[in-house]
Amino acid sequence: MTGSESKVPVSVLVQTKNEELAIAVCLDGLHAFDEVIVVDSLSDDRTVEIARGKGVRVVDFHWNGEYPKKKQWQLENVQTKHDWVLFIDADEVPSAELTASIRRFVGQSPAAAAAQLRLEYHFAGKALRYGHRVYKTVLLHRDRARFEPVDDLGLIGMGELEGHYQPVCDGAVVTLDGLLRHDDLDPVRTWFDRHNRYSDWEAGLRARREAHGVDRVNRSRQGRLFDRVPFKPLAFFMYSYLLRFGILDGRAGFDYSIALSAYYWQIGLKSRELKRQQEEGRQS
């Protein structure tokens, strides 16, 4: 087969906002897919210029502060050639093995609702082969999966994007072979900036959950398990660095395990602060 017939019948939706450092590498890594669309959140750098220079369609997104947020908005408003859509960030590129897995999967016309992909996570310039494993449910059949509201409007931390939770799927979710390379080219300080905001969001969600008695967040099984673990920062470090052999990644494995442990410590500390403030407010 030649031409478009040989392409993977999936529409890739690339999420961008000021990604001029990464977008070219990302788009170059998507040549096997039949359709690639950049959904840009009003970048003020060269992201859109570079994407259009690659011949890629660009859709502008401006969040109004309400639901739907960015990914669900795309499912509702962005027309795609294919029912199977792949959400990726500008600092992500699928491996050849993963691309082949996606081709086989969608070629079988599966009744599944979605597929989860394993990340090849890079931290401080090094690929992590061991330690904590991250999976993302980002290959979705647009008629069988959706991102439902999680009661996070007004919380600082995530803004326009659906955060650390999974789509609701009307059908099975399978795991594909191959890796989705996640390599953030920004300085490592930006990782800490983001996770400081993410911990605000997580703590705020936890406070609302405890106040209302309802948890609307659809997390992965691993995420639900970690949420219940006592002494979570220490437990996570032991899990990632020792039980999952993060020690074999050298200094990067240690740094990543420490960094994520500190992230979970932040969530706990901020959650306790919010709970104390709520109790003081009820007593006043």
At a glance:
Helix content is 39%, strand content 22%.
Overview of the molecule:
It comes from Demequina zhanjiangensis. Its EC number is 2.4.-.-. The chain has two domains: 3-186, Spore Coat Polysaccharide Biosynthesis Protein SpsA, Chain A, CATH 3.90.550; 189-279, no CATH class. Helix content is 39%, strand content 22%. The protein contains eight helices and eleven strands. It has helices at residues 23-28, 47-53, 70-77, 96-107, 188-212, 221-228, 232-243, 250-283, and strands at 8-16, 33-40, 57-60, 84-89, 92-94, 114-123, 126-127, 135-141, 145-146, 168-169, 173-182. The strands form two sheets. Strands 1, 2, 3, 4, 5, 6, 7, 8 and 11 form a nine-stranded mixed beta sheet that branches. The chain has a two-stranded antiparallel ribbon with strand order 9-10. Helix 2 (47-53) links the parallel strand 2 (33-40) and strand 3.
Strand and helix layout:
Blueprint: E1 8-16, H1 23-28, E2 33-40, H2 47-53, E3 57-60, H3 70-77, E4 84-89, E5 92-94, H4 96-107, E6 114-123, E7 126-127, E8 135-141, E9 145-146, E10 168-169, E11 173-182, H5 188-212, H6 221-228, H7 232-243, H8 250-283
Parallel strand pairs: 1-2, 1-4, 2-3, 6-11
Antiparallel strand pairs: 4-8, 5-11, 6-7, 6-8, 9-10
Classify the oligomer. single chain
Give the overall shape: globular
How far apart lie the N and C ends? Answer: 73 Å
What is the residue-mean pLDDT, rounded to a whole number?
A: 93
Q: According to CATH, what is the class of the largest domain? A: Alpha Beta
For CATH, the homologous superfamily of the largest domain is named as: Spore Coat Polysaccharide Biosynthesis Protein SpsA, Chain A
Q: Major sheet: size, sense and barrel closure?
A: 9 strands, mixed
Q: SSE order, as H and E?
A: EHEHEHEEHEEEEEEHHHH
Strand content: 15-25%
Count the DSSP helices: 8
CATH topology value of the largest domain: Spore Coat Polysaccharide Biosynthesis Protein SpsA, Chain A
Radius of gyration (Å)? 19 Å
